[in-house]
Amino acid sequence: MVDKPDLGAIFSEALAEAVSTVTGVYLDCGPPEDDTCFEELTGVMSLRGSKGGVLFISANEPCIWMLCSGMTGVPENELSIKDIEDALCEFVNMTAGSAKLRLSDPDYMFALSTPFIIRGKDVTIATKSSSQAISRVLRNGGIFLKLIFVA
Questions:
Q1: Rounded CA gap, 28 and 137, in Å?
Q2: Closest Cα partner for 120 from 58, 34, 55?
């Protein structure tokens, strides 16, 4: 019998690795949370497959500005909104790709959609009762990213 993978840990580790690889910022993952409210910017990607879902990575604008600056080497005051949206989409893309590689179960061999951005604070995810929402917050001081995976 194959153990069910810990999707929260897999996606959290993939996000922490993606951020540290491109920015040098190391994020610690907190315990599971029930909070599925978005921050100001949310990157989204659909993971299609027999056991797919939707990946959300959300943060407030100051965190994304700071991470985008670390990622690109461009000072925050020289970045545009498009730059930070692209950076957040890249974190979503890297996280989903890394999680896909970490999941050895053939049922999790999903196809990845193009990432996109949702703008707006306090947007909440509502799902069917049969869906599972995994929520984690990764942080380092004042920098934080919220990861939500709905399966």
A1: 8
A2: 58
Delimit the domains of the chain by residue range. 7-150
Whole-model pTM: value is: 0.90
Q: What is the pLDDT of residues 57-87, one digit of tens each?
A: 999 999 999 999 999 999 999 999 999 999 9
9-57 pLDDT tens trace: 999 999 999 999 999 999 999 887 777 778 899 999 999 988 888 999 9
Taking the C-alpha atoms of residue 24 and residue 102, their distance in angstroms, rounded to an integer, is: 22
| CB contact at 8 A, 119 and 41 | yes
CATH match of 7-150 with 3.40.1550.10: yes
Let me know: does 86 contact 96? Beta carbons within 8 Å. no
